[in-house]
Every structure is written in C-alpha cells, then in structure tokens.
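Help!! Second protein's tokens look totally different from the first
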Amino acid sequence: MSKQRIKQLIEDRTDKDGLTETGIPGVRLFRATQAIPCVPAVYEPSVVAIVNGSKEAVLDGHRFVYDDRQYLCCPMSMPVKAGTPNASIDDPLYGVFISLNQRVMTELTLEMENVGGALPKVKGDLRAQGIRLAEWDEDFTDALLRLLQLGANPIGAAVLGDARLRELYYAILQGEAGLFARQAFGAGNAIARSISHVSSHLDTPISIDDMAARAGMSRAVFHRKFKQVTTMAPIQFVKSMRLNNAAMKIAGGMTVNEAAIDVGYVSSSQFSREFKRMYGQSPRQWGEAQQLPMGVA
C-alpha cells in the first residue's frame, strides 16, 4: 500500500519526462514515456528507486535490471551505461533519484559502528562491485513515503526535510545494501576518497601513482584494491569516467572539442580515437545520433 501511495505521489507531481524537483535538496522524481537504449552516463553517489516500469544499468559488463522489487544503490561515482528500454506511454517509468550526501552518510555509518550496529547480511553475487541492488524492504518504503509526502508542503520540507532524508539514509544502511554502503562511507575508505577526487578533477592530469599516494598505498596494492571495489583497473576507470562525461556533454549540445578539453584531454585526435574505440562511432557521429531527454538515463 505504501509503495502504491509513492507511485501516486510521483504521478501527481510529474507532468513531463525527465527530472522534477521535490523541494528537498538531492531528491528528484522522474518520468519516462519512451524507450531509451543504454547510453553512457555517470552515476554520482545515489539511490534510484523505481515504482513503475524498469531501468537498466551496465557497469563494466555487469548488467543490472531493476524495478519496484529492488532499488539501485551506487555509493561512489561510477561510469555506466543506463537506459529505460521498456518505457512507453501506456506503461510509463516512474521513480525517484536520491543523492547520497557524503557527510551525512559518513556520520550515520560512524554512529552505527560506534554503538555496535549489527551489519546486515549480504545476498547475491558479490563479484560485481560499484553498484548493488537491494530489496525494497518495509523500512525503506515507509521512510521514502514519509520523505516524499513533504514535497507538497514547502514549510514541512524546510523544517523536516533533513531529518526525514537522514531517516531514509538509515534505512538504506540497515537494508540489503547496507554493508556495501557502509564500506563506501566508513572511516578509512581510501578507495572511495580516491574515486571522489577523480570525479571532481577530471579536467586535470591524473596519474595512478598520484591516486595510490593519495590513498596511502603502494601502486600494486592500490591497483588490486581498486579493482576489487570497482571491477576496473584504475586507468580503465579514469578513462571511462572521462569518456562517459564527455559523451553526456556532447549529447547535451557541447562541441566535441569543448567536451574533450572539459574532461582533461589535451589532444582532440587522441580523444576521438579513444571515444570511437569505446563507443564504435566518432564523437561527432555519436552526438548527432543522440536524442536523450535530460535526466532519464
């Protein structure tokens, strides 16, 4: 019943495809009424919850398809391909994006660890890291409903928004993806900090030695631990982040040269070669073929 009420709230508040602000920072509703194949995207730390239809995300060959039975948890910035392959006017996709605030998630994780909070059991395939799917449990559903109910009340959103978002974060940390999220936000997670640094400094030179030094590890240890967390080698991850960000910028109307420079490429010819190797088309050809509604992937 609570999930149906969430769906009704989203239907009532979304009158077009794409993202709709709720008045609560970091919480946005979305709707899609057309099928969109998987295209390059970058998921920032977030949870994506679907109440009607299904979404798809692909990370380094691992395919995640999720609907109203599981939500997606992505606690670190990840280069993915994402889409809505089954959305239609007759069966729209409805869902919620919840950004995960680094400071609040870390505070909660440390508080839970300090009081000896039991770690939730982990189900499913542990080989695919970077993203996990988690069951829509009762605590998550109730917390999400309570949060979204504030959207129609600006005063309530201003006064209670932070507290109810914190309640939802707690439900995530206690849920099926809780251990996975705690590992990303817990004290001493050097890999998560390294990924955050890469995500915010794509336009500057990034070396694996610098990443390893920032994490306080030798190059060999850093390489091994990084791949355990993301499934990708560090250099592959950085390249995917740059190219996915560039692809999104080109789809949004930026020129190929501007996009290349914006994500740290000095040579436009090198950018075009690597882009074509990854996506099978030149940046210009790919951009001309894209008609992606903002906020759907």
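Here's the second one for comparison:
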Amino acid sequence: MTAPTVFADALEEVQFRVPYSSAASYHEYYGTGAPPWRLGRGCGWQTFEVARLVEERCGARPTHLYAGGHSPATYLTQDGITVLDPYLPHVEPLRLARADAVSGAVRAGIDAYPIRSRPDGTPAPSRLGGTWWVADGVLLLEYARFSPRRSAMVTHRAFTFHLATELPAFPVPDGFARRLLLEPMQNNLSIRALHRGERTIGELVLPFTGRPREQLVDPAFLIAKDNQGAVSRAGTPGFHRVLDLIADAVDGTPEEVTAYVMDAAAIYHRVVPPDQKWPDYSAEDE
C-alpha cells in the first residue's frame, strides 16, 4: 500500500476502534491499569496508536508536535505536511502541500465528524482546517462544528504548533502523564464514541463544575450529547438513547460505560487536590 492509503486506513481504524476518553488515563495511571482499547484513550494515546499503525505498515515515522497538552502525528517532507489527529476526528488525512503556498502560507481543510444536519436536512460536516506558515515553521489546526443552535460553524478547538517543538519521548513517561492529568484544564470526564454503522457520535460526560466538590462523584450529574450536540440529562429518554449508541459502538453495555466514567471520577476525586478549581463546563446545546 502507498503511504497515503496507509495514513487513511490507520486514521479510520483508530477513529472507530479507539474512542476518545478522558477517563481512560485515570484508570491507567492512578487506578488498576489501562482499560480495554474499545473503551478508549486520551487524545495523545489515540495519536500514538495511529502513529504505531502507520509505522508498522509502511515505516513512516511521525514528528509529534506538542502544544497546549495536545500532540498530533505529523509527517514532514520536502513537499509538505500530513496530519493525523483522531482527537479532532477528521474523515481523511489533512494534507498541506508546500506547492499550494500563497504569500508564504499553506491553507487546507478536510471534513470531520460529527456530520450534523441543517434545518433543511442537508448535511453539515465538521471541519478540520490547517494553516502552515512555511518560513516561520508554525502550524495552526482549527476544528469547527456546525452549531444547530446558532445555525453557523463554530470553532471548537484550536492549537498552534511550532515545528521545532516536539514531545521528547512517546508514549510519554508515566511521571509526565500523571502531572498532566492533575492540571485544572481538565474540567470533566467523558467518553466520545463514533458509531461505525451509523457514522454518528455520542458522548457521555461528567462535568466537574456547577456543584459542591463533595458531589463530584454523583451519576445524577452525568449528561449525554448526541450527534447534533443536543444535551440530555441523566435519566431522560434522550440520555438513554445516546448511552445505548455509545455502548453499541464499544461492544459494551450502558451499565459498563457508566461505571467506567464514574469509577474514573472516584479515582480523580481521590488524587486531585481538594481545593482544585476548574474552568466552567458548558452543558448547553451546541
């Protein structure tokens, strides 16, 4: 297989086989060990897995750029940059070709999940865009989703990388991972699964904000987000529909998925400082 085919196949495999889960690392580094791959990994570990598959299949080795607690797999050649980042769930690899530079910058974009619906029923894919300032050696990745509430595309994540700033080792050392997991930027625990058959996303989230610390480990505060970004509270029909979709996507049960997140919350509650402060978590419909 050619490298572009390997890149695309590895990205798709990780998107469906390894959901994004911020709960996973607390089980692995502060609990009883890493959960099954089907229950997901943190964003960095999704990247490490896609990079492992690519190297195993065609020998290409990535540059793991690093900024803001995030690290995509980037493949740098004389001709350009290929980006693989399962956390920003793009449908195909993002390719920035040096020959496409205009005024010193290369801009490119690719569709991403979730693929939502506009009011008229037409599809509204998410979008991963990249801007590479060639002379400066700077790469900006911007991930945007269609917001049904606003009827507009809204930037959901953005990361700026300097091509000279790499992770010194990967997977990262245990001590580095443990320190990162206690940073206050972590204001929720979640699992986000992409269903292979339906090509839709479901997310189960336990926000940390909006209640006293002693109520942190309380399943009554779980919420679910469907493919349209609509939020459902624990116990409601919408919540159970999303939970069922996630369970099916990970070959598990709703009870297993719920326990997985809540057990991680109990671990987090035990290891994080009692006076930890978090940024507010928005639990409104997207």
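Reply: Different proteins will give different token patterns, so don't panic. The longest strand covers residues 105-117.
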